[in-house]
From TrEMBL:
Signal peptide residue numbers: none
Pfam families documented for this protein: HNH (PF01844)
Superkingdom to which the source organism belongs: Eukaryota
CDD domains cross-referenced by the UniProt entry: HNHc (cd00085)
Region (Disordered): 1-48
Protein's recorded name: HNH nuclease domain-containing protein
SMART domains in UniProt: HNHc
Domain HNH nuclease: 102-148
InterPro entries from the UniProt entry: HNH (IPR002711), HNH_nuc (IPR003615)
């Protein structure tokens, strides 16, 4: 059996209990007796003693000189560019995109500071914490995993560093795909072989 339409109408008229808001006895627009203007224009209470302390404190900072740091921890952009240029080139690859670190690990320019096998860091040969400067002579491109393993050690051998390298086999096609995804095109180096049209 179907319920009648009147029964449905009666159910629609039933409403849920309403929430009641507390009513402000002086009305919804009532505000404190002080006006906005009077609150903003009141002068701060400063005593003579407070002014003397502030004046003395300011006198301490008058001759303070902030000198620029002569040896920043990170390498300047220009040093990073030159450091990349001095790293070993990869045959048949664009030297602006691919290099090898001193241990022979392949690194991709766009991958900086990540933990992957193609990622690199700009490493202080003599660690910064041991007085190494952020100069081109003290900079090398190094696989990020190796750089993190090296830390600030100076007595670690290349054999130990090679063992800490992240090894990955990367084919020419893989390199092409990385370039295509990072740069939108694939460029090979001048020594890529093949026919040259003149």
């Amino acid at each position: 059996m179907r319920p009648s339409k009147e029964g449905n109408r009666q159910n629609k008229n039933v409403s849920s209990p309403r929430r009641t808001r507390p009513v402000n006895p002086s009305g919804p627009d009532s505000r404190p007796s002080r006006s906005r203007h009077s609150r903003l224009s009141s002068p701060p209470s400063v005593s003579v003693l407070d002014r003397e302390i502030v004046t003395e404190d300011l006198a301490l900072f008058e001759n303070l000189e902030i000198s620029p740091k002569t040896n920043p921890r990170s390498f300047p952009y220009s040093v990073k560019q030159q450091c990349w240029e001095k790293a070993e080139k990869v045959k048949r690859r664009d030297p602006d995109r691919w290099r090898r670190d001193p241990l022979g690990n392949l690194v991709f320019r766009k991958l900086v500071g990540c933990p992957g096998c193609l990622c690199h860091d700009y490493d202080h040969i003599i660690p910064y914490s041991k007085g190494g400067e952020s100069t081109l002579e003290n900079c090398q491109v190094l696989q990020a995993t190796v750089n993190r393993s090296k830390g600030n050690q100076t007595d670690i051998s290349n054999v130990e560093l090679i063992q800490k390298s992240s090894y990955c086999r990367v084919s020419g096609r893989d390199m092409d795909l990385l370039e295509l995804s990072a740069y939108g095109n694939v460029r090979h180096g001048q020594d890529s072989g093949g026919c040259k049209i003149q």
